[in-house]
Amino acid sequence: MSLLSIEGLRLSFAGVRALDGVSLRLEEGEVAAVIGPNGAGKTSLFNCISGLYQPQEGQILFAGENLRGLPPHTIAARGVARTFQNLALFEHLTVLENLQLGRHHLMKNKWWNDIFFTGHTRREETLHRLRVEEIIDFLDLARYRAMPAGILPYGVLKRVELGRALCMEPKLLLLDEPAAGLNQEATEDLARCILDIKEELGVTLLLIEHDMRFVMQLADSITVLDFGKQITHGKPAEVQKHPDVIAAYTGVGGAH
Amino acid sequence: MENLPQTLPACLEQFAIDHPNRVALRQKELGLWKEISWSTYAAAVRATARVLSEWGVGAGDHVAILADNRPEWLYVDLAAQSLGASSVGIYQTNPPDDVEYVLNHSGAKLIFCEDQEQVDKCMLIGDKIPHIERIVMFDPRGTRHYEDARLCKWADALALGEKLMANEVQWYDIRVKQMDPKAPAMVIYTSGTTGQPKGAMISNYNVLALAREASKMLGADHRDFLLSYLPLCHVAEKIFSLFLPLTTGAVVHFGESIETVQQDLAEVSPTIFLGVPRIWEKMHAQVTLKMQDASWLKRALYHFFVPRGEAIAKRKREGQAALLDRFVAKIGDLLVFRPLQERLGLRRCRIPVSGAAPISPELLHWFHGIGVAVGEGYGQTESTGVSFVNQPDAIRIGTVGQLIPGMESKIAEDGEILLKGAAVFCGYLHNEESTRQTIDDEGWLHTGDIGEVDSDGYLSITGRKKEIIITAGGKNLSPEKIENSMKNSAYIKEAVAIGDARKFISALVLVDYHAVSDWASRREIAHTSLIDLVGHDEVQDLVRAEIEKGNQNLARVEQVRSFRLFDKELHQDDGELTATQKVRRSAITEKYAQLIDSMYTRTP
Fold it and tell me: Between chains, do A142 and B31 touch, taking CB under 8 Å as contact?
């Protein structure tokens, strides 16, 4: 069984077809990528999976269970975490606090216990803090731990956002343009990091990316979208040679 | 003396017997300080020794360590010694070629690497280091696909050692008893500003003779806290992470990483702190810059109390502090000095020491002024790191203090400082010739430094024998003194004084990018990199003004009359800095010859 399977997804806004019958299968433990020109519907697809948009047609199965129609926090609790194209961090909170927010949905304590900071609460806090610290170590964020997010450089914030998503203990991690705005070195670090997430944490990843070289080296499978439609799906080498893909990117030749 | 342990491993065993549960080390892991007791420390060293022996390490062998400061660094070092082998520390900043040189020169059998980055260096030079039998990784992350048969994880190695040790309890005790205190126990490669590094061999006899006297002189004991953060391949950090703690029982702290030193410092608040001049310069610059953003009240208080603090500290050192002085100092402490000290992590610091390179007296006056009485020490790897030091209650600024008991010193006719005594090293590894050049027939160690001793035995250093500038006018000048006077500025990171056989002194200056970039941003001077930053006339003017300030502390002939700015950071990989980040003056004067000539050909 695929970890994520999407069939015939359709989404439109007042007559504009954002997604027009998109299907996608994602196997457990793989790194998959969605590519396509601007406005192809990549982020819309992410928003449908994470519950921010409600598609009009189609189905989204995650580990065999339906996700369509569920609110975002329920989907997050099922094990789907994401990062955003434009960072969505709390500027005035420290890196540590931003990461701890990722643990919020995992807190099982009752609020009346929390008020009195009972032994149970304390144990739970310690456990969550430990996990957050492991992520800090994993992403090499120790030196920024106590700094407010607002003063940190862009590349670091990208890592913090990734860290927050990891703190949610996801089975599936959706990354929306993780390499955008990063320089060569930071992009290479990110690539290593993604492989570590896949292999050491066992998380399945789905990413949207413009940087073709980055995608070709990293992804096990690629889905290409254009104008809300799926053009092709396959291994990086196959996708790269596909005439429709070349057409979608260059606007020359192909079936359009 | 007779009953005291004669080697560092024996000292450790003694602590494990006398105070098994007392804290010996602390390490910050996952945001928390974890404690390591003397018994745990000793057990880890025993297990490490057992596994090293299992892998064929014996007397006369070498074990290389290419890692961050961490407890395991000490375990491996002490374990190697206990088998009669020597540890060889390698700087993590070393490019692969330099790593290869040290490994081949020492003929090391094993290497302990920090992480993937360091392992990659070994992989890159893989065929050229045939004698390396095993590469042990402390942090194996990212190496899961590596297929080199020599690779091994630290956790596995330690577990193996523990297992083997369980059956042979006496094994280690016998080794430690058999150790020869006068045999080399560690090889410390000195970067040297010229030529290939040389491996200085240090014995336990050297170490303990020195450490026991030095800790007495400084007044260190088991209640002291230290932070291990300078590279452990350097003798200075070895003194403060190994020698001193193993003779006094002081607690050594290992922070999270090199980048978190400032936070770690504030959390540990060490009572003994060794800083190299660059660290003290950085702290001073940090305060100076922060003050620009402070409220007018804070600024006013700072500018009122700091000069007074300096004057009072001076009178105190001379034993002339009046009652009023004590009162002003107390108020200053409450309003200004205490918050500053806390911010710097030096509030509890009883013994702040500067060493490894000369520091400018003005900077020391400033630190004394804010209540951090930094004392300078002096030494070299060849004298086991330290031979002169300022005692905390009798500091004389501008001197490196008094001779450590057990040593002899004299000034040669040409002014060179000569040393003799228990701390003089065993010679350079595989380099008889250099050893003979350094230690003469009568046993005097030739330091290569020029200095003078005053009537109370305080030594002041004039400069390096080989690097003295002789101007066209025939004046002998020390480039370090000139450079340090320039580096007092928060905006100047590095300065190289030029003037050998020239009419006047000039300098190549590297601005502190961080500070000058901040300065430029406040004035809306657009820049994206060092190269366009130094292209601005305003920046040139800023540096000129800072150099003028620096010139006021110098004699007329020493004053810098012309300067040029580097448009790139100086780098070890480009051969411009040594592994300890000291400027290689000869390499720089060669590389930038044209730039230097331009200062002397143009009519000013």
Answer: yes
